[in-house]
Amino acid sequence: MTVPKIRVAVAQPTTVFGALSGNVAAHAAAVKRAAGDLVVFPEMSLSGYAMDAPTVALDDPRLLPLTAACRHAGAVALAGAPVHTGTGGRGIGVLAVSGDGVTLAYLKMSLGEEEARHFEAGHAPACIEVRGRRVGIGVCKDTRIERHLDRTTALGIDLYVAGLVHAPDELAELDVRARRIATTYDLPVAFAGFAGPTGGGYVQTCGGSGVWDSTGTVVARLGPEPGTVASVEL
After folding, report:
1. In 3-state terms, what secondary structure has residue 225?
2. Which domains does the chain have, with CATH numbers?
3. To the nearest 10°, the Cα dihedral for 55, 59, 61, 62?
4. Is 42 within 8 Å of 165 (Cβ atoms)?
5. How far apart are CA 203 and CA 199, in angstroms?
6. What 3-state class would DSSP assign to 103?
7. Quick count: other Cβ atoms within 10 Å of Cβ 153?
8. Could you report the per-residue pLDDT of 64-111, keeping only the tens digit for each?
9. Strands 101-107, 90-98: parallel, antiparallel or unpaired by DSSP?
């Protein structure tokens, strides 16, 4: 059986803290420019990275322009936002947005020290299927936690993706982690890193989103500028 090729994009939208409608518009524009089957966005990209960032409901009508953009492009977007958990708390979520609507694809398992004071950790790895490929999902710190990676790759994934937030002096860490994952698990890796200010957290971030093949070789890479997209066929 021949597995179809998949076009994977990483995006660094301009995000304004708390401005969901404007952030959705920036995401929708990125999806249109990417012309990809899968578009990966940074951690908490819809809200801005801050401990008090407002939660985003899956049925919020302000998400409709992103749903429409995905429908028009035939794409799935993985966007980040705080969400309500089933226990009444808040978690750092990854929303899977398609022309059919919005679902919660994953809750971040590996929280930082400050994050743990404000959010609940997810308890299970996750993957989604896009064009016959099983896509494993992580968020930032997850990408260096062996237990998360082992459990996620055990799902039989064909590609690992994650949204991240890093300071400018941490740019090299994205490459180190991506290469380690790619060569350890023999998987392509796509990282979407925040670029520009996060609105309520970092004053500046490193960008550096990219796609690495299963040998750890960079096949696409963005700089530090917000509002940019890179797309490759795997």
Report:
1. coil
2. 7-233 (3.60.110.10)
3. 30
4. yes
5. 7
6. strand
7. 18
8. 999 999 999 999 999 999 999 988 899 999 999 999 999 999 999 999
9. antiparallel
